Amino acid sequence: MAKWFRSEPMEYISLIMNEDAAHDCLGDLGKLGVIQFTDLNPDLTPFQRRYVSYVKRCDELERKLRYFSTEIGKFNIECESAGTVDTFLESDQASSTGGTAETPSSGKIMENLEGELEGYESQLKELNSYSEKLTIEYNEKVELQEVLEKAQNLLESEEGRPDLDMKFSSVTGVVSTEERSNFERMIFRATRGNCFIRFAPIKQPITDPETGQLMEKSVFIIFYKSDSIEIKLKKICDAFQAHRYSLPDMDDAASVDNMLTDNAQELVDSRTVLLKNQDTRYRLCQMLAKHCERWTWHVLKEKAIYHSLNMFKADVSGMLRGEGWVIGENLDEVKGTVEKAHANMDMSMPSLIDNVAQPWPTPPTHFVTNKFTYAYQEFVNTYGIPRYREANPALFTAATFPFLFGVMYGDIGHGTFLFLAGCSLVWNEKKNEGVKQDELSEGLHIGRYMILMMGFFAVYAGLVYNDCFSLGLNLFKSRWEFEGQEDMSVEEGDVAYQLADYGSAESVYSFGLDPMWHVTQNELLFFNSFKMKLSVIFGILQMFMGTCLKGVNAVYFGEKLDLYLEVLPMMVFAAALFIYMVILIFMKWSINWQERMGSATCYDPAGDEWQADWVVCDQSGNGYCTPWGYSCVDGDTTADKCPLDYGGSGDGCQPPNLITSLINIALAPGDVDEPIYKGQAEVQNVLLFLAFASVPILLFAKPYMISRQHNARAHPPTEEHVEAPHGEEEEDHGMGEIIIHQAIETIEFVLGMVSNTASYLRLWALSLAHSELATVFWEKCMLSTLSVNWFATYLGFGLFAAVTFGVLLMMDVLECFLHALRLHWVEFQSKFFKADGIRFSPYSFKQIINDAA
Predict the structure, then answer these.
(1) Which ranges of the chain have pLDDT less than 70?
(2) Would you say 58 and 306 are in contact if contact means Cβ atoms under 8 Å apart?
(3) Which of 82, 115, 99 is nearest to 296 (CA)?
(4) Cα→Cα distances 324→307, 311, 328, 387, 650, Å
(5) Which parts of the chain span the membrane according to its record (predicted)?
């Protein structure tokens, strides 16, 4: 975990290598994935680079592979997997077919692939072209056969025709069924109704040779008389892409039958040739599917090598120089890899790797993650990349995010379902790794451990709330009991009594809240108070931890001004008002208020409530005494009877309203109506002074010190010229700009502490909403049907399960997830996280192949 707290140390190196060995060097470095190259040729366009011709060749190979994938997809053939990326990279086999063990030199890899893929592409294109021609011919014969049959049937169906000497001309053909109505309407309008048209649908769909889709078509026959109409009809047919066919005289039955027979025979021959062509293409695509993925990985690897080589600079003939960031602990491994590649090539000129000055002040940020921490790191990176060596919020998010989710979603039953869902995802993680999934399934697989932890903390919080599907579980026997509870004679308004003395160990429920609270009238009041205080405590502690992390960053980077003039005033302000609030909450929880209130209560010394160890007063008043010996008088206040003498109306014997007490710290300084401890007013005045004093320090101290430092640099005490660091002499350090920036920081922090504390009340609000929804679903769907009959109960359970799954197990999980996300991104990370770092993008074959997939 300590390694995850800060990003990996980076080294900026210069790499000089022989041009002949450059390809092999980068091939080995790409397998390591620990270096990010810097472009040393920013002024050159992509077409002016040294290895642009190789990149173009790779692009052409990618185009061919995409063409193969498209053709393979037409036959619904799945491309065979080339195995894992790690196995592919470890393998030294570079044969284009993947079936031989010979390893061509790096220069021949591209030539082998180009030659082989060119042959397959030519063969496939030729087969596709031939298939398109065969399909057109086959479709024409099918359409002609249908035209002959439909026209013959159409004319034969016209019985009782008058035998006229007038002869009509006709146009026959086939048109798409979708265009039939438009086609008929256009003919009617163009010929003004001076034609006679009939349609007959073709039952069997016909394949479109261009798209390969099946189309519904219909045979048409049009009778007309005028030559001008014939010209219009032909133009309309061409416009609607209707195929026209010339038919013999339909009165000559012999010629029509001969034509039908000849066409049927040709149709059979065309179908045989077409099926043979399709079978040949299918077998070729099957063969391509076996190697397509491996070829694609080879091309991606080669293209990545030449893209990286285009970033190198050729300062000396035959030598290439590159620069880039390397993970510090892998620097020796990089040196060994480059030297090994040179040694394998028997190069006389050795390689050279040396550290150089950094080109920009901020190195890229890289964290080493595993399958558990990866999801939380991406969770943070989505908001912004941490600065180099800055405290990583993901380390804390891995613990606090599922915990705060559990606080909002706390329910034993619902949390168990979520936990089991996470267990299922973790159990099947090996099955899902490396499998192409949709975006939602991939996201669930990545966050499987996050879902597991969310479910675990939801169950934990449910145990603390003692809430299971809105019902309390009497796991450790309740410490409260109602009169008549055993015989079910409890009435509304009855008061429960404790089974053990107040404050004793036996009176405390073993873990979580007592289940009796779930059946009381003041249930909502009690749970609201409890959850509201918990929300404030968790929120203030998390925000204060964020402020402390800001100080940790300042110490690590040696930023003394930030530490003393920014972080410390922030911590003083937060501690004086908000940490003090948390302390008051715990003090109120830990004090035995029954004992304190009893000490300010008047009792009759002769009564049953009087205890033997109490002090009997002189009974000079109304005859009653307090346990500490004060003689009660009618009209005495609590302050008169309280022995603590803390001041205020309660004098320490009355539990305070914390909200009022906290508001009065600022609105009524020195006035504590219901104190908890002695000297509370003086302590709160000191804390208020510290809080108010920290604001001007936070606002003006840092800009003043920065201004003094810049003035000292601008006017050095000696006459010797001190050269400023590069870029600093041109930087504008105007006092006004610095003050404005610091004012924004101050206002954001001061107001943010107040608003963000209120924002954490969403923990209480979401938990309340979840428990109330569960209660409503249980009462309306289950309780209301249990007393009817078994069938109503059956239907009620179905409705209860449906709304529970849809609302509480789906919508509410997403809602609580988003609110926990916001609490981390806005309330927690804003205290210390800059989110303007540069992500480390290593030259890695594995990453490139995975991204392409």
Answers:
(1) 1-2, 92-107, 155-167, 209-212, 250-251, 346-349, 359-361, 715-734
(2) yes
(3) 82
(4) 14, 10, 12, 18, 70
(5) 447-469, 534-557, 563-587, 686-706, 791-814
Place of tokens 């030259």: 843
Q: How far apart are CA 781 and CA 793, in angstroms?
A: 8
| Residue 705, C-beta contacts closer than 8 angstroms, at least 6 positions apart | 561, 565
Phi, psi of 595 (to 5 degrees): -70, -45
Phi-psi bin for 172: left (phi > 0), alpha (psi -120 to 50), beta? beta
Return the SS3 of 599: helix
Check whether domain 136-157+167-278 has CATH 2.60.40.640, yes or no: no
pLDDT of residue 726: 43
Sorted by sequence, the CB contacts under 8 Å of residue 348 that are 6+ apart come out as: none
Instruction: Report pLDDT for 97.
Output: 35
Reduce the DSSP state of residue 507 to 3 states and report it: helix
Closest CA to 596 of 604, 608, 588: 588
Query: Residue 817 is encoded by which pair of tokens?
Result: 């997830």
Identity of residue 79: C
123 CB contacts (<8 Å, ≥6 apart)? Answer: 284
DSSP one-letter code for 9: P
CB atoms within 10 A of CB 26: 30
Residues 113 and 65: beta-carbon distance below 8 Å: no
Cα end-to-end span (Å), the chain: 31
> Distance between CA 253 and CA 259 in Å, rounded?
10
Are 832 and 391 in contact, with CB atoms under 8 Å apart?
A: yes
The residue ranges of every structural domain in the chain are 1-37+312-368, 136-157+167-278, 590-602+620-709
DSSP letter assigned to residue 365: B
β-partners of residue 214 are 207
Identify whether the C-beta of residue 369 lies closer than 8 Å to the C-beta of residue 3: no
Burial environment of residue 628 by CB neighbours within 10 A (0 to 12, 13 to 18, 19 or more):
middle
Write out 77-144 in H/E/C secondary structure.
CCCCCCCCHHHHHHCCCCCCCCCCCCCCCHHHHHHHHHHHHHHHHHHHHHHHHHHHHHHHHHHHHHHH
Q: Which residues contact 601 (CB under 8 A, 6 or more apart)?
A: 626, 627, 641
Distance, CA of 594 to CA of 577 (rounded, Å):
28
Apex 93 CA angle, 89 and 95, nearest 5: 125
Give CA–CA dist 709/715, Å, rounded: 10
Lookup result for tokens 């000129």: 349
Specify the pLDDT at position 250. Answer: 67
Distance in angstroms (rounded) separating the CA atoms of residues 845 and 824: 34
Say how far apart CA 820 and CA 408 lie, in whole Å. Answer: 8
| Residue in the block written with tokens 């048409």 | 220
Q: Distance (Å, rounded) from C-alpha 191 to C-alpha 232?
A: 8
CB atoms within 10 A of CB 798: 11
The single residue listed with the structure tokens 């099947």 is: 428
User: Using an 8 Å Cβ cutoff, are 452 and 425 in contact?
Assistant: yes
Main-chain dihedrals φ then ψ at residue 158, nearest 5 degrees: -85, 80
∠ at Cα 323 (318, 325), nearest 5°? 150
Question: Which burial class, exposed, middle or buried, applies to 174 when counting CB atoms under 10 A from its CB (0-12, 13-18, 19+)?
Answer: buried
Tokens encoding 220: 């048409």
Kindly give, in sequence order, each residue whose CB lies less than 8 Å from that of residue 129, ignoring residues fewer than 6 positions away.
none
Cβ–Cβ < 8 Å for 791, 383:
no
Q: How far apart are alpha carbons 183 and 232 in whole angstroms?
A: 12
* 678 Cβ neighbours under 8 A, 6+ residues apart: 644, 645, 646, 652
Query: What is the chain's Cα-based Rg?
Result: 42
- Name the nearest CA neighbour of 403 among 847, 824, 739, 58: 824
**Distance between CA atoms of 751 and 503, rounded to whole angstroms?**
40
Fold of 1-37+312-368: Alpha-Beta Plaits (3.30.70)
